[in-house]
Specification:
- It is a single chain.
- The chain is α+β, with helices and mostly antiparallel strands.
- It has four helices and four strands, in the order αααββαββ.
- A hairpin with an 8-residue loop joins strand 3 (about 140-150) and strand 4 (about 160-170).
- Helix 1 packs antiparallel against helix 3 (about 80-90) and helix 3 (about 80-90) runs antiparallel to helix 4.
- The protein is elongated, with a radius of gyration of 24 Å.
- The chain starts with 6 loop residues before the first helix and ends in a 15-residue tail after the last strand.
Amino acid sequence: MNPVFTPFRLAAIGVIAWALAALLWIFWIPAERRQLDALREARATVRLPMPRTGPRGERSDRPPGERFIAAFPEQASRPQRVELLLAAATSRKLAWQRADFHPARDGVPGLARYQVTLPLSGSYGALRGMVDDALRDDPATGLDRLQLRRAAATAQLVEVTSVWSLYTREGTSGRAPSAPAALP
């Protein structure tokens, strides 16, 4: 009876495995890194700083409520802000198939709220990183709700329903709101 795995066959299998690992290292990993770097660069260019009403210590004749409202971005920035939110999910390799967008009413005079419902799936660590990125990159974004589900207690994949609010100054755009183009 001949053994199935002779030392020569085991050595050949080892050489083939090392060759495949080397090909993976040479071709696939740098391509993934380039794609991740491109997404991070795109996110960095879309980052929206909150406008300042003036240098620190400057006195204004406007009431505090008006200064507060003036600190929010204009409604025209909403498509870029939604793209920024979606890029935060994509850069952390969180899967999403669709997102729902609609205006919401809060009754706060001078502010408009745009609600984004974004179902995601991925690791818990990636989800935490995405939430951190989204809230840091756009200070006028709020996380309203985060609902987590796992198939089993030991499962690595987390299914998430996240609801975000993008706050803007009301009446600062002359065009109708539009949803952004979907990212890959």
